[in-house]
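Backbone Fold Data
Goal — fold tokens
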Amino acid sequence: MAQIESSIATGTDAFRETRAAMLDQLARLRRVEERSRAASEASRPRFEKRKQLLPRERLALLLDPGAPFLELCTLTGYKLDNPDPEKSVPGGGIIAGIGFVSGTRCMIVVNDSGIDAGALQPRGLDKQLRMQEIALENRLPYVQLVESAGANLLAYRVEEFVRGGNLFRNLARMSAAGLPVVTITHGSSTAGGAYQTGLSDYIVMVRGRSRAFLAGPPLLLAATGEVATEEELGGAEMHTTVSGLGDYLAEDDRDAVRIARDIVGKLDWNRDLPSDAREGKVPRYNADELLGIMPLDTKRPVDMREIIARIVDDSDLLDFGERYGSATICGHARIEGYSVGIITNNGPIDAAGAAKATHFIQACCQSRTPILYLQNTTGFLVGRMHEEAGIIKHGSKMIQAVTNATVPQITLYCGASFGAGNYGMCGRGFHPRFCFSWPNAKTAVMGGEQAARTMTIVTRQALKRSGKDENPTQLEQLERKIMSNFEGQMDVFTTSAHVLDDGVIDPRDTRQILAFALSVCRDSERKQPQSMQFSVARP
């Protein structure tokens, strides 16, 4: 046994201050997330008048009662749709996550049509593409509840139109990969968005509410002079009886969700999965203590074994190469019974630590053990001694190992994620299977103060070469500007808004969320859908 012995003193002022700061960040997170719910709820009178359910009500009916639902990317677009942070509504106009439908774990994507009629919001495209990527990689059936006004023409950008083709490409890829795409078209599915419905394997349409057409009546009249009502042009009854686009005609939203649940249940998706009853031993230390361990100040050191002790089964970590490259921690553990290799940092990564991590990643691949990266590092060590030790060579080997690992990799930003340390520790650019953040996490090419000092030195050298005198006031202004720019961008509320993680989580929920992610990875490894050369084509 290798239980971690904690040395955290929970009664100290430092612990209480850190805990209070983390709780403040969590409260801010919940306030911001609540805005999307409130904005959608404000549309209730309009939905009730149309005898429709709100998007989150549809989602609640779709999900199995009492089963877990992991909502993802809740901060998408925060402060990007509105420069006033007090008025910005996060979420990208999309509600998305992994949940259970009729006993089947699915990726679920819902157009939040209570907000701007479901029009795609800034970064909403990135969020949808990320959900499709997760579904493809983890072999999850894809259920989408569609009701969207389509692209926001007032904020039209040609690059988003072109990139939007990836949404439809991925729907075709999922179908061809044997991953059923089940769609309820609750309302509008117009222009290019009509293919969101058309590229589905099973389509449920709602009488009197569903609309699917390449050109709506106004565009049709402008383009061809033809006059047609919405119902004549693309209503549910026409599509389920004449065009063949729709497969099932529902009477209302509730009936549509019932049909979709029945479709997923009839797929018998779990028939090839063996029973996976697992029992994990709870950690020896309270998860609530995670709030007081990781400070907001990234310069304050943290023993990451204290974090591990409150996440893994029985607080048991079998250290790998404990005495070599000791600032880089590698070891084997279990989370809710799932085996996992853990890599984290008690400081910058040196050459020995990079070499050890490379070895450990390859060993995990050999034993088919998923890898969890707990990021808290200022990057790779620099300086003459470290260059002579081969820091570039060994760091490159670590990055190669991360890139080519053959097992699922999960990343959690616990604190600092600076410089190439972000890369070596499987940052978002290296496509971890899942990537989560704590509310205190910070991501940047380097710290703000370091960046400011670097540019001051460069500026002084440039002035000296040109024979000009230094202006202390201007240099001070330059430092403040750089620090402000860095601090504003490294904050987790900014990085998550750009979909640079899959969501910001409460540290106390870390063990449950990681176990859920590991179970998704385990099921995906054992699931072998019937792949085809082509996706399912409609009649």
Q: What stands out?
A: The chain has a mean pLDDT of 92. The two ends are 61 Å apart (CA to CA).
